[in-house]
Amino acid sequence: MTETYDVVIVGGGAAGLSAALVLTRARRRVVVVDAGNPRNAPAAHLHGYLSRDGLDPRELLRVGRAEIEGYGGEFVEDVVTRIRHDRSVELAGGSVLAARRVLVTTGLTDELPEIPGVRELWGSDVLHCPYCHGWEVRDQPIGVLGGSPLTMHQAQLIRQWSKDVTLFPHTMDLTDDDLANLRTRGVDVVPGKVERLLTEGHRLRGVRMADGTEVPRSAVFVGPRFVPKDALLGTLGCERDENGQVRVDRFGRTSVSWVWAAGNAVDLSAQLVSAAGDGSRAAMSINAELVHEGVYTAA
């Protein structure tokens, strides 16, 4: 039997849960389908979320789910394999959910540099966002691993949290202007290719270069490649912008009239708190349209 909902939300992170909270409080029948693999799972604490700074990310999700269930929201632990044009949502477990509207908040994947030690320490001593983690490693010896288009900006930005910042260009070629700007900012540069990150007791202790040089560091920032999890939106034929990202308006509406998207699936730079805001805004837009639809269909 196919279950019918006002809104099916795909993804149960900050954006999806915030949307679900708004919609359940608006007395909509809502289900959140989530596979249980949040992007920030490796992190012990979340930061920059007003009144929740330092909280375990899993606790935020637990509390959010409890609030939504208190208003009658439902959760399904499963993977959405397809969203059909008849507004049916197919799940890997075999269930099919019918939706008047769909909100996709599937997030993104961080593609990390293939350097030994990076993946093992990801979320603890290997970091990417100084606004999220800079305070926790302030005044420590910090490294920045090159290879991202944002490497130069990242190195200069992180200098704000520590006087001891070293850039490892790795495979990057720095110009004379780059080197001059780094010197002006007080950032050291260790040329050459990085061989691996060195660990001791599951903590970072340094960076080993291909020539055998070892540079002590207690934290390293990297620039992952952000890959949006937008395949479901692509299959539906949602329009993309010049950068290949799914295009949404300021309320999260896609080019498919009954589909919205929010969070990192459509905004690669969204922080936890801004993703939550995007989800909330999308939810109000969805509810407003359902109200408008009801005026003409008595639904």
From TrEMBL:
It catalyses: [thioredoxin]-dithiol + NADP(+) = [thioredoxin]-disulfide + NADPH + H(+). InterPro entries: FAD/NAD-bd_sf (IPR036188), FAD/NAD-binding_dom (IPR023753), Ferredoxin-NADP_redctase_2 (IPR050097). Transmembrane segments: none annotated. Residues 5-276 form the FAD/NAD(P)-binding domain. One of its GO terms (molecular function) is thioredoxin-disulfide reductase (NADPH) activity. Keywords: Flavoprotein, Oxidoreductase. It comes from the Bacteria. This is Thioredoxin reductase. It comes from Amycolatopsis marina.
